[in-house]
């Protein structure tokens, strides 16, 4: 049964207790969902409702070791954290420790859950099934060993085609707790959430006739509703521009009441780069040709667009959207425009790249250019020690601008500590504290000093620096910090904005400013990561209260329920950076720091049991207080999403309860995964030199036999310094699963999680990887010490190449370096200077020289290296691989070099050839099954 629909009006009927399946999802390679943008259709279980909490006790945890090992004594070097009263599930470290892993039984093993249902196909087939089951039981009853496959693993073609890519939560919260999404027919739909137990209404915002008109447009890819749901902004006809601004598009406004369409136009036609709605009503701002425009009402016919800036220019000045340099390192896909909560003010960033040096990228076969000559693209690209983009922050009173018919924005000053001389202030973003106060995040050039400045919107004056942080010992601040303000703006919750060794190492305490309250003694966290801070305005900018204690690294505060006095945030598992949970903590300074309460651990979903979700994501509506939230369990099993009610103020602990609304269980993907054999997974922990810890995750062949076979080892170096990316518990079926299941390769990720050493990329981080590799080879007899390879992409490509080059024991025989950074002097300054500072003699020129791959070229002699690079790589230019190739050729050291013409950093257009090339290289390096 599909949702009831009523075009352009009130809902026709409540969706109560209905069930049934929706139509098939979009193609799995469709664009990933962005807020309000194209996403998968509404879920198959969209109408499934749960009346309340389940009464049944939770079943056993699905990720226990198989088979259960006998409990060994704990290793002498390992210290257990005190268990939290309401903490997330924690793996048994004694069973997972590599000190104890003398045999296969001492690993924490798990396989993907299988749907045990079989389909009766007839008597003869039934007999065959019984025979197979009996044989399997006999094999399994003999003890640990090879696992008999039920079905073949999906082909690499299926993996590349996206057959195992899950859908993401495709709805966006609007004020009032309403959800906006595209239904199974890709029509914009609004769902009105009432309080728990009441009816849920959904209706389409655009009629079938209007949708037919819209579908005639060239690929309408995003439908963005105004906060009052009276208008829909339709984005279509997207096409690329110069690499700095990526794309332009056309936009149409749909009047929900009349179903009429009108184009969004500026003085230079209909090509628009970006648009955002104000938080209230239907005013909006857009960017055209790098200039900002303000539209006071979407209902005006024709639209009245007020020009805010006049100096925008491609390749030089960007207003309202980040320049390419800021986009890739700071803003990502976010615009650089911020409306005040009531829409009275519009703040925007401006980025001047006039002084930034350029590189030339050649398109050898330009698709839109005729003639015999290639096309050269000029890209502004700051390198370490050279000029950076100049960022500035501006503020416009929209009401005053409309009244006088012209805009007079005011430039906001940078905190004086970051001004003057050759100092360059970096803008991390902005957020409104109240309707009349704007908070902005600034840092110095090398990103070891951060300040949160608060401005008075009516005067444009800098009122105060609400927070100040100076990281030391090689740490870096996080420019992407997003403070969360109380409704009165006087209190601030912030995830401690630290990166690198200042956030994940023994130097963390020294890098932090003094706190009013902090964890001490045996309550101090075993895993040291960013903490949740409570700031109070009008005080010392370095003074704060630590709200959350325990071995949890805080990643992002999401919502503040001031009625219940709780702050909700995403954080790591207890000492496990690869896990992520939704937590809450009291917002009061009294009794702080508090033990975080794991909210996602106790929530039930139709297919994900409580405490079985090891990687959660959540979103809250922009309401005070929030009444609902969306929770997505992203792993380790097939992801699913549901809507839950926010716990009441009198709840004293996490309640094991079901969702208000089940959203998407992805049954087709579950069936697809259940039909194939996936690798076993193993986890362990290493204690490295100087007390460093490394977490190891391995994918083992489904039929591995430790007594009879030895397997090649391939290490994935694509790990971030906090150890939270490739080793995460997110569901993923990709090349690693293919290699382990089909090619009998042991695939491993080693996450040290200690951050880069002080100004020393390519030193201790490489030593950690080498030490971990040797430990793995020595301790596991099913790993063939003669067949060890590493691979990585981008920074991971650098790490893979450097690991093999510096391996004096020749344990690593082969390396695949994809788009590697070879010389950090030639990489992006905002990234390189964050960890290496400046390449000057009085700063860290020596660190840059030590980190250069060409300085270690002799280490490749007698080993096998495959370089892969695309000529259209805007992030890591082809120059890097050419630099290493030149040095190897000069030294007469053989290597392989695969170049992809006109292919960018991600290789998406050549994936089949790209992966087959790497497999063929591994086959030549060492025989694989």
From TrEMBL:
Which residues belong to any copy of the Peptidase S9 prolyl oligopeptidase catalytic domain?
A: 760-926
Kindly state a single biological-process term from the GO annotations of this entry.
proteolysis
**UniProt topology in membrane:** Single-pass membrane protein; Single-pass type II membrane protein
The UniProt record lists the keyword Protease: yes
User: Domain Dipeptidylpeptidase IV N-terminal spans what residues?
Assistant: 226-588
Task: List the GO terms this entry assigns under cellular component, sorted alphabetically.
Answer: endomembrane system; plasma membrane
Fetch the PANTHER family from UniProt: DIPEPTIDYL PEPTIDASE 10, ISOFORM B (PTHR11731:SF200), PROTEASE FAMILY S9B,C DIPEPTIDYL-PEPTIDASE IV-RELATED (PTHR11731)
Please give the name of this protein: Uncharacterized protein
